[in-house]
Specification:
By secondary structure, the chain is of the alpha/beta class. It contains eight helices and nine strands. It folds into two domains: 116 residues, Response regulator (Rossmann fold); 72 residues, no CATH class.
Length: 207
Amino acid sequence: MNRGTNMVNCIVIDDDQNILDMFCDFLEVFKIKVLATGNNGKEAVELYEKHTPDIVFTDLAMPNYDGVYAVENIKDKNLNAKIIVVTANSNDHEMNLFELLNIPVISKPFGVNLLKQTILDISENKNPVPQSFKIKYKFKDEHEYYVCIVNYEQYRNFKKLDIIQECEILNSDNENIKSEKEIEDALDLATQNNTSKIRDLSEILTT
C-alpha cells in the first residue's frame, strides 16, 4: 500500500464467513494486519476493547447485535475510533449517523480500488464530530415527534431512556444548543419518568 496504511491493523466483523475470508485476503494484500474477526456487533465491541485496532471494518445487517450497535458502542468508548462500514444496504437514519461520526460506507459488492482509497482517506481523516446537532424523538405511547438539539453523549443518553420509543439524527450540522447543562438536567429527570423539562427544551415536529 501507499503512504498512510503502513503498519495499520484492524478487526473485521461480518456474519458471512465467505465474505469475511475474502475481505481478510484483500487486507493482507494491502499489508494491513487483521488482529481478529467477529460475527456480530457485540463481538465487535468486545474485540475493540481487547485489541484497540487502528480501524474497525463492520457489516450492518447481522443477527442479534447489528453494525449500528457496534458503531455506537465503540464510539461510546472512543469517539475518535476509526470505523468503516461495509454493507449491502443501509437507510437514511443510519447514513445520518455515519455522516455525523465521519464513518465511510462501502457498498457490497465493492472494488479493490475503492476499498484501498477509503482506507487511505480514513487514516488521514481528522474531522471532528459536530459539537451539537438536531435529533428527532418520540415518547412511548405517543404519536407526536419532538425535535431537540444535543451533543453526541446526550443523543446516546436519549436512546437509552426507557420512555423513548424512537430517536434518530436529523442532520449532522453544528446547531446552536440552548444549554448543555439544561439538557443534561432534563435527561436526568427523564430517567425518573419526568418529561416536563425535556419537552420544554424541545419543539414539536411539524410536517
